Each structure stands twice: as structure tokens, then as C-alpha cells.
From TrEMBL:
Residues 7-16 have a biased composition (Polar residues). The chain crosses the membrane at residues 77-97. Belongs to the glycosyltransferase GT106 family. One of its GO terms (cellular component) is membrane. This is O-fucosyltransferase family protein. The keyword Ribosomal protein does not apply. It comes from Gossypium anomalum. GO terms for biological process: fucose metabolic process. It is a single-pass type II membrane protein. Pathway: Glycan metabolism.
């Protein structure tokens, strides 16, 4: 890591190294005192002798002190010097204040980041302004064709057809919930670009948990999607008519590429998938969850994925309008404009069971959870004897979902008052109202979309579970503060999108490992706990950070999809 010296520290060093204040009896500006000093001390030091020389030179000047010409000229010189010093001082003070209140650029792990010179007053509702103004989105910029920018990254790039032609048709199933499907769509566009293939509009596959039959056009604006990406990838709405046996794409192994490794490099698609597309003309990729890497693909491809995610994929207008209505109601719940927090609470029964963590509960609850885990995940459950040690290890590593009560204590330690308006995005919480009671007691202004909107208003969105998830997504995205309690694509995509628009919005990611240690310490007082929480989370609020290797593209798009502003870069390069 390359660290730059903080300008404030250099200022401090300059102050510390400034010359010591001279004693009054040696000041050459006080002439009367100097005369007294000469009479009292016949033996002079070298400094005194030097000062005497200049005094004598001054005394024998053509203009004596009693000469009126000397008085007038001296007054003019004094006035000039006074004005010069005053102007210089004013400019210096203004420059110093400007530098102290403006951010500067620093390097961390080879990337230029924005660092504040002085601490701003902490805010509960937004990140420090000085730390969030250097970076701006650049995913909308197109850097030219694949032949010029992408093909040189690959071996055998000569096998790629010209850009005005196509290798064949690519078809994918977007599996999982809404947000996993969103990532799959972004990856599908990127893979089609890599192979210069025509992308057939992805099918949103029914998920075993969501059990939803939503189509692409039920959630996203298809026309905008196709038109926005027309200069990047050719996209068609349906399988071409000349391909008669459409069911073959869903069932036939001859038309399916199934051996794609997770986080595959771009070169894999050139070597293994492109030849089959050119041979068969239409191929499907299955499964297609996380089948494209991040730091092993060309930068232009990562930028294209951001372009799809943040610009091409738009929800239907009716979903956007309903989310705006919910946001407006959240901001006016107190009778006057108020900020609000969005809390993604991941404590559904399925999440609790899948985590294999141990949680507070009665003996009967623990027995029922053990039976549920044994039924749903028998191969992981085995005989259950190893689960207690596994649960302790996972909690120590911060891999367990936060309970509602734990979330409440952390938020209160951060300083959020009881009156805070909180929008809760969650499924049915495991344990029901009893489990939610600590959170609701400490923050009574908790609401969900079902409490903000009437049944009639939500009726049109209940046809598709993903439509309801889209409403939660947008209300959380537009909140003043977003708080996640466990991992997952929902939280990652929201944090990434909030970073992409400028890092000013707080997106709090609790350090669950450190918090579990604090929660388990019976001797830690409230004051020490508050200090731990505040210090730990100062930098876990969605500030600018390098993307790889600690983040994926969806949670932190900074490195490939954002650019430092020109003026800030010039200042940084000049300082180098």
C-alpha cells in the first residue's frame, strides 16, 4: 500500500519547526531598549556586534531621524510594508482554510481515493461530504467496439466475427430471486459481448423458494433495455422463428453448455462456448449463477455490466411510481419532512435454518429448528453432534444473521434516537412478534410496505412476488441510511448502487464478528460498547474503496465503473 503524507501532518510539522520566539531584549526592532543594552554591557556578543553595525549604518544614513524627508519617506515605506504584510497574511489564511476544508487525494493499494483533511462534524444521516466528492460514474461511456478494446485480451481472438455480424444466439435462464436474476442478466449481456453473440431476452426461471412465474417484461422495461444496449449487444425478444423446436433449448443436452465453472474468466467463453455457438447457431447456458469472474475479464466488460445494472435495467413505470409514493410517505410520517432509515432484516425461518447458527430461544424452539434443518439439509445436518461447535465458529467469524434485538442495540449505540423512522424490508421474521419485540421497543416507528400502503394499492403487485421485492428494493435504495444485517444479493446491489451515485448516502454494514465478541463480553459496560461500535463502523458506511479483491462488482463498482474527477486528479498529480 502506498500512503501519502497527510497535508495536515505536514502543516503540524511546519508549525513545530518554526523558529523560536526571540527574547524581547534581543529584538532589533526596539531601539531604545537596544541602547540601554549597549550601555550596560561593554562586551558584546557576535550578534550584538552585528546588530551594532547595522545600527551604525542606519545612524549614518543620508537622512537622519530628525530630517522631515526621512519622516515622510519612512511613513510611506511603513504604510506600504503594512499593506503588503496584511494582504499576504489574508491570502495565506484564506488558502490555509480552503485547504483544510477541502479534501485531498491519497493512495491506497495503488488506487487514488478521496481523504478528508479535517474531520467534519459526524452526521447520522450522511457520509462526510469531503470524502465523497472525488468520484463520478463513468459506466455510460462507451469505449469503442470489441475488436478495438476487448479482443486483444484473448487468445484466438481472430475467431471472433466482425462487429456487424454475429456468432450465433445465446440463451440463458436467470435463476433465483429477483436480485440473483438481475446479476445473471448483467452477466448474460457481458458474455454475449465477449463472444459477439446475439442475446435472446433472458427467461426468469421459477425458483423453488420464491415459486414465482414472473417474466422479464413483468418487472423490467424491455424496450428501454434493448434500445439502451443497442450499441453494445444485439438483443432480440424471442427465439428466432427458423428454430422450430424451442423446447429443445430447455431440455436437450446438445443445445446446453453445462460445464461452466463459477467465476470463469472471459477466455473460457472464447475457448469453450464460442465454438459450440458457431456450430449449433443457438446454445443455452445452464446453470448461469455467478458464471463470470470479475478481475479476470477486460475492464470494458466490467464497465458494460455496470451499464446494464445501473442504466439499462429499469423497473416498469408502475413499480417506480408506487415506490416513490412509499418513499414520500416515509419522509412525511412526522407531519413535516424527516429522514428515514431502511433496514434489510434477514431473519426468516429459511435463513435462520440455512445459517446453522445458534440463536436465543426456548428449548422447544431449538428442537423444532433442529428437526427443520435435518429435514431440509440432511447431508449437512448428519447426526447433529458437530453443529454446536460449527455454530460457535460461524458466529465468531461474523457469518450469522443479526437478530432483531442485536440490530436495535447496535443502532442505539451509533446514536440513532428512539424517534427514528425505519422502513423494514423483510420476509416473515422467525419467531414473530416476540422476536421483533426488542427492536420495536427501542424503535417504535417501524413500518413495512404493507403498513404504508392499503391492500388495494398493493393488489396489482401481489400477482408477482418479485414485484413486491422490487418495491422493497427501490424504497431501500432511496433511503437516507441503509442498514444490512446479513449478506446476500439484495444488500450488495443496493450498497453498490448507492456508492455509484456518489458515496454520500450512508450504507451501514455491521461488523458481525466484532459485534459477536462485544455481545459475548459480560464485563463490557455500555460506554465501552458504544465506543467500540462507533469506532468500528466509521469506515463501514459505503465510503470510496478499491473494488478488488475485497469486494465484487455489485457491492462496490468504484474501480471499474467510476472515474476520479479531472480537477481532483490534476491537483493530485500536481502534488506528486
Amino acid at each position: 500500500m502506498v500512503e501519502l503524507r497527510h497535508p495536515s501532518s505536514s502543516l503540524g510539522s511546519r508549525v513545530a519547526s518554526s523558529p523560536m520566539k526571540r527574547d524581547e531584549d534581543t529584538s532589533p526592532l526596539i531601539h531604545d531598549h537596544f541602547s540601554q543594552h549597549v550601555e550596560d554591557h561593554p562586551r558584546h556578543s557576535s550578534r550584538d556586534r552585528e546588530r551594532s553595525f547595522w545600527w551604525q549604518t542606519y545612524s549614518f544614513s543620508p537622512f537622519s531621524k530628525d530630517d522631515p524627508r526621512f519622516s515622510q519617506r519612512g511613513s510611506r515605506i511603513s504604510l506600504f510594508l503594512f499593506l503588503f504584510v496584511a494582504i499576504a497574511g489574508f491570502i495565506s489564511i484564506f488558502s490555509i482554510l480552503h485547504r483544510l476544508n477541502s479534501p485531498y487525494l491519497c493512495k491506497k493499494d495503488g488506487i487514488v481515493l478521496h481523504c478528508p483533511r479535517v474531520k467534519e462534524k459526524p452526521s447520522l444521516w450522511e457520509n462526510p461530504f469531503a470524502a465523497t466528492t472525488s468520484w463520478k460514474p463513468c459506466a455510460e461511456r462507451r469505449e469503442g467496439g470489441i475488436s478495438a478494446k476487448v479482443s486483444h485480451y484473448f487468445e484466438h481472438s481472430a475467431d471472433l466475427p466482425p462487429e456487424n455480424e454475429t456468432s450465433g444466439y445465446l440463451f440463458i435462464h436467470a435463476e433465483g430471486g429477483l436480485n440473483q436474476q438481475r446479476i445473471a442478466i448483467c452477466n448474460a449481456v457481458a458474455v454475449a459481448k465477449i463472444m459477439n453473440a446475439t442475446l435472446i431476452l433472458p427467461v426468469l426461471k421459477q425458483d423453488q423458494i420464491w415459486k414465482d412465474q414472473t417474466k422479464f417484461e413483468d418487472i423490467f422495461d424491455v424496450d428501454h433495455f434493448i434500445n439502451y444496449l443497442k450499441d453494445d449487444v444485439r438483443i432480440v425478444r424471442d427465439i428466432p422463428e427458423w428454430f422450430t423446436d424451442k423446447s429443445e433449448l430447455f431440455t436437450s443436452i446438445r443445445r446446453t453448455v453445462k460445464n461452466i465453472p463459477k467465476y470463469a474468466p472471459a477466455q473460457f467463453y472464447i475457448d469453450n462456448v464460442l465454438p459450440r455457438i458457431k456450430e449449433k447457431k443457438i446454445m443455452s447456458l445452464k446453470p448461469f449463477v455467478d458464471r463470470l469472474g470479475y478481475d479476470n475479464v477486460p475492464p470494458e466488460i466490467n464497465r458494460l455490466r455496470c451499464r446494464v445494472n445501473y442504466h439499462a435495467l429499469k423497473f416498469l413505470p408502475e413499480i417506480e411510481q408506487m415506490s416513490d409514493l412509499l418513499v414520500s410517505r416515509m419522509r412525511n410520517r412526522t407531519g413535516s419532512p424527516n429522514p428515514y432509515m431502511a433496514l434489510h432484516l434477514r431473519f426468516e425461518k429459511g435463513m435462520v435454518g440455512l445459517s446453522f447458527c445458534d440463536f436465543v430461544g426456548t428449548r422447544e424452539e431449538k428442537v423444532r429448528m433442529a428437526e427443520y434443518r435435518q429435514k431440509e439439509w440432511p447431508r449437512r445436518y448428519k447426526n447433529g453432534t458437530h453443529l454446536w461447535q460449527l455454530a460457535l465458529q460461524k458466529r465468531k467469524e461474523g457469518r450469522c444473521p443479526l437478530e432483531p434485538g442485536e440490530v436495535a442495540v447496535i443502532l442505539r449505540a451509533m446514536g440513532y434516537p428512539k424517534e427514528t423512522q425505519i422502513y423494514v424490508a423483510s420476509g416473515q421474521v422467525y419467531g414473530g412478534q416476540n422476536r421483533m419485540a426488542p427492536l420495536r421497543n427501542m424503535f417504535p416507528n417501524l413500518v413495512t410496505k404493507e403498513e404504508l400502503a392499503s391492500k388495494e394499492e398493493l393488489a396489482a403487485f401481489r400477482k408477482h412476488v418479485t414485484s413486491l421485492a422490487a418495491l422493497d428494493f427501490l424504497v431501500c435504495l432511496k433511503s437516507d441510511v441503509f442498514v444490512m444485517t446479513h449478506g446476500g444479493n439484495f444488500a450488495k446491489l443496493i450498497i453498490g448502487a448507492r456508492r455509484y451515485v456518489g458515496h454520500l448516502q450512508k450504507s451501514i454494514k455491521p461488523d458481525k464478528g466484532l459485534m459477536s465478541k462485544s455481545f459475548g463480553d459480560p464485563y463490557m459496560g455500555w460506554a465501552n460498547f458504544v465506543e467500540d461500535v462507533v469506532i468500528t463502523h466509521q469506515t463501514r458506511t459505503g465510503l470510496p474503496e478499491e473494488t478488488f479483491p475485497n469486494y465484487d462488482l455489485w457491492e462496490n463498482p468504484l474501480t471499474p465503473c467510476m472515474i476520479i474527477t479531472e480537477t481532483k486528479l490534476q491537483l493530485y498529480l500536481h502534488s506528486e
